[in-house]
Amino acid sequence: MRVVVTGTKGQTARCLQEIAPSLGLEILTVGRPQLDLMEPASVLAAITRARPDIIVSAAAYTAVDLAETEVDTAFSVNVDGAGAVAQAAAALDAPLIHMSTDYVFAGDQASPYRETDVTRPLSIYGLSKRKGEVRVEETTGNHVILRIGWLYSPFGRNFVRTMIDLAGHREQVNVVRDQRGGPTSAFDVAHVIATIAQRLVDSKDAGLRGIFHLAPQGDASWAELAEEVFRGYAMVTGKSVAVRPIATHEYPTAARRPARSTMDTTKLRTAFGICLPPWQASLPGVVERVIQEKVGELAS
After folding, report:
1. How far apart are CA 90 and CA 139, in angstroms?
2. SS3 for the chain, per residue?
3. Is the overall model pTM greater than 0.90, yes or no?
4. At residue 300, does pLDDT exceed 90?
């Protein structure tokens, strides 16, 4: 199965490339300059040349705070760009897996969000991703939209890597305690995508299409996630780093974040039989890998 993934440097794309050999998948990532989501006309040609059996729309504008001032860019990439990828999927009669976010929700609900709950993004980033979902839905019915939150991996910029960077030169780190979500390994996401991709290629079942929530078992605050990262850091390096939990208002940001963006994954489990492990189970391997890679960089 030939899986074409938009974007070459994103966390999901890089994790898919890494796990592909063990799963017998052919992963082809396409990105700039051949495929540029700011230039929708480039998308169809680039994806057509790649000859996909299925398309994973992973490339996106993800700078949450910068999006508050780069509004046009965020919408161009996350709405028009996503729409162009969906148009290519429709033209090629290929299933599409589109990556979205928990930030489409306001975070003011006590229970985990279901796919049918009302969306109310608090930020330009969240709004652009929600409008991108709608554009995909309007363009092709042969899609899965995966909402994912708090993504981390050994690659790119993410919270786990930032905490490990800070641990190298701080004894204590201030981390927000009153926002909760589901820390999600991009490797877990990659395995889920591989499973869904095969099912979509093999079956036309409408029950396998639509919006699905993907999250680990359990949830955490940013402070709790940081504590778990530093626990792993101490086990590898012997250095302890303390977390000072703070309130959101003590760490002002340009974009508002949902206070509680936990998501119910019953629909995904029912349709595909997929259930991620507790978030604590997937974290240590990534933490250890990032630390070892940093040690290697310092030694070289």
Report:
1. 7
2. CEEEEECCCCHHHHHHHHHHHHHCCEEEEECCCCCCCCCCHHHHHHHHHHCCCEEEECCCCCCCCHHHCCHHHHHHHHHHHHHHHHHHHHHHCCCEEEEEEHHHCCCCCCCCECCCCCCCCCCHHHHHHHHHHHHHHHHCCCEEEEEECCEECCCCCCHHHHHHHHHCCCCEEEEECCCEECCEEHHHHHHHHHHHHHHHHHCCCHHHCEEEEECCECCEEHHHHHHHHHHHHHHHHCCCCEEEEECHHHCCCCCCCCCECCECCHHHHHHHCCCCCEHHHHHHHHHHHHHHHHHHHHHC
3. yes
4. no
Percent of all residues in the chain with a pLDDT value above 90, rounded to a whole number: 95
Query: How far is Cα 222 from Cα 259, in angstroms, rounded to an integer?
Result: 11
In angstroms, the CA 86 to CA 43 distance is 10
- Give the per-residue pLDDT at 297: 60
pLDDT of 102 above 60: yes
Q: Please give the Cα distance from 153 to 159 (Å, whole number).
A: 9
Q: What's the rounded Cα separation, in Å, for the pair 265 and 45?
A: 35
- CB contact at 8 A, 129 and 58: no
**How confident is residue 293, by pLDDT bands cut at 50, 70 and 90?**
confident
- Residues serving a catalytic function are 125
Contact criterion met (CB below 8 Å) for 218 and 278: yes
Q: Is pLDDT at 296 greater than 80 in this prediction? A: no
Joined tokens for residue 25:
């998948």
| β-strand pairing of 151-152 with 184-185 | parallel
- pLDDT for 61: 96
**Domains of the chain as residue ranges with CATH:** 2-156+184-217+260-279 (3.40.50.720)
Identify the bridge partners of residue 152 per DSSP, sorted by sequence position.
185
Rounded to the nearest integer, the mean pLDDT of the chain is: 95
